[in-house]
Amino acid sequence: MQNIQDLKSFISQCSMNRRLDLDANDVTGYIDAYLLKQEQETSKVQTYFNEENLLTSVLDLFAAGTETTSTTIRWGILLMMKHPEIQKKVQEEIKTHIKPGQLPTVEDRKKMPYTDAVIHEIQRFGNIVPLNLSHSTPTDVYLRGYLIPKGIEIIPLLTSVLYDKTQWKTPNEFNPNHFLDENGKFVRPDAFMPFSVGRRACAGEALAKMELFLFFTGLLQAFTFYPPPGVSREDLSLKPCVGFTLVPTPYMTCAKPNY
Q: Contact at 8 Å (CB) between 191 and 160?
């Protein structure tokens, strides 16, 4: 709880600083846009654009929209060091579809099925939110003969799906072919649900997909990742640190520029 309070204090200080420099003609980010909307609604008796919602929404963006993406990228770099042959294939596809000197764009993803498959497999294998977020039933629900009472807490175990032996050919191995058909085209199996499913699925899924593609592709376009001297790829541990999210065990990496 102290961590949350520290974050809220930090966000509150940021919003106060932005309010002092607020310029409707120079909106630099989410907080600026929120404060402008707040000013526009000052005459309303009821508004959603209050200080509490500002703190909560920015906290959500930090916790759900930043740490999860950075953790997935950390898994990606580790797995590329562990599987240099996969890293090389991604880089070959990047060279084929992205001109030298140009940064990746969201549109490039449609032309790069192997890279897309690797990113999806990083998400599946990394399994960074194994317990999902807890939900509760709005009404009594009957499931397979069992009564789940109204208001009961539900923990949807995503691990049970992302590592389901009946859904994945090699669930315990990092295998991008899980997302490729026999012609090398990208496919998304129904069992791929790191963002959960249904009306309460992750609201930031579309943003996360864009971020992961742009960051991961941009990194592999610019660098090749190796274990540090004296460390073999067999020495690299894929055992996660246990927490609310599963993050890789801290590791060192060498990034060699691709030029």
A: no
Question: Which helix H or strand E contains 256, and what residues bound it?
Answer: strand 254-257
Beta bridge partners of 64: none
pLDDT digits (tens, 9 = 90+) for 32-63: 999 999 999 888 888 899 999 999 999 888 87
Distance of alpha carbon 235 from the chain centroid = 26
Residue for token pair 């058909």: 181
pTM, whole model, 2 decimals? Answer: 0.86
Identify whether the C-beta of residue 69 lies closer than 8 Å to the C-beta of residue 208: yes
Spatial CA neighbour of 71 closest among 196, 250, 247: 247
DSSP characters over 159-212: HHHHT-TTT-SSTTS--GGGGB-TTS-B---TT--TT--STTS-TTHHHHHHHH
| Count of CB atoms situated within 10 Å of the CB of 126 | 27
Provide the CB-side half-sphere exposure for 184 (13 A, CA). 6
What's the pLDDT tens digit per position in 3-26?
A: 889 988 999 999 999 999 899 999
Residue whose C-alpha is closest to residue 118's, from 144, 83, 166: 83
* Contact of 157 with 104, CB cutoff 8 Å: no
DSSP 257: E
Closest CA to 39 of 15, 61, 74, 57: 15
CA distance 240 to 118: 19
Nearest Cα residue to 19 out of 46, 62, 49, 64:
49
In terms of Cβ atoms closer than 10 Å to its own Cβ (0-12, 13-18, 19+), residue 46 is: exposed
